[in-house]
Design brief:
By secondary structure, the chain is an alpha/beta fold. The protein has helices at 32-45, 86-106, 122-128, 156-163, 165-174, 180-186, 196-210, 215-227, 233-248, 251-261, and strands spanning 8-13, 16-21, 53-58, 110-115, 118-120, 132-136, 140-142, 191-193. The radius of gyration is 20 Å and the shape is globular.
Length: 275
């Protein structure tokens, strides 16, 4: 099911797919290959409800330092296989990351990020599209693009959706760095951990809670939540009623209702909570 990867470490265990960005010599900054590999992984699991959650983290103490400017041109070719010009290569790399972050945002699985060290640029954006974000207290979050003479092109909408326009303006226009505690205060992350043990405990707690929820119902709920604000209210509520009826009369609804009546755990429930 999973593609072979050179820039990612993959581990699938108990319905939890762990993805580790594995470019520690670059603080896990993303090059074209890494972006392409991540897109391939999320495409591969899109229709597999047996994969309940994706845990996204970085190797050796950093989550992700954004885009690897030096590596964005590697392998950038047109349809005829000819190398792209610098402008076209930059556009292709940037837009490809935009596709990735959109796909992560809409993934039917619950996406959990473990955020430590550098959480910069595109890494900041990935944190913004995770369903559950767990940060180390000393993690360093920033949108440093304007200090480099560029713009936070693909992540800007997702940052605004995560923390609101007022805070997004401050962070994007100044490039100011914040730590895990401040990120939690702004609503960028859900939990702030003081140690490795604390973030492992929090991750296991979240996975344990997730395993109590029906896989298809969870995926549909996430999709419904993402439609809020982009779909008119009355059509959205009509669609929500369709989903409710579909789920109630579907396999998960019948099993969940029967389990409640019989005072037992539903078939999808699992005690296992580690990744």
């Amino acid at each position: 099911m999973l593609p072979e990867c050179k820039e990612l470490l993959l581990s699938l265990d108990g319905g939890v797919l762990s993805i580790t960005l594995n470019r520690p010599h670059k603080r896990n900054a993303m090059n074209k290959r890494l972006v392409d590999e991540m897109r391939a992984v999320f495409a591969a699991i899109a229709d597999h409800r047996s994969v309940r959650a994706v845990v996204l983290r970085g190797a050796e103490g950093n989550f992700c330092a954004g885009g690897d400017i030096a590596g964005m041109h590697d392998g950038a070719v047109d349809e005829a296989g000819k190398p792209l010009s610098p402008d076209k290569a930059a556009w292709q790399f940037n837009r490809s990351f935009g596709h990735l972050i959109t796909e992560v945002n809409k993934a039917p699985q619950v996406v959990i990020t473990i955020l430590e060290g550098a959480v910069l640029g595109g890494g900041f954006g990935l944190a913004c599209v995770s369903d559950i974000a767990i940060a180390k207290a000393d993690a360093k979050f920033a949108m440093p693009e304007t200090g480099l003479g560029i713009v936070p092109a693909q992540i800007a909408p997702f940052v605004v959706m995560r923390v609101g326009l007022t805070q997004a303006r401050r962070l994007a226009l100044t490039g100011q760095r914040i730590d895990g505690a401040e990120a939690q205060r702004l609503g960028l992350v859900h939990f702030c951990a003081d140690s490795n043990d604390d973030d492992d405990t929090q991750l296991n707690n979240q996975l344990s809670a997730l395993r109590r929820c029906a896989p298809a119902a969870t995926a549909l709920t996430k999709s419904l939540l993402l439609d809020v604000g982009t779909t008119a209210l009355e059509p959205l509520l009509d669609h929500a009623s369709d989903l409710f009826a579909q789920c109630l009369n579907g396999p998960e609804g019948k099993e969940g209702t029967q389990a409640f009546i019989e005072k037992r755990k539903p078939s999808w429930y699992s005690e296992r909570g580690t990744a």
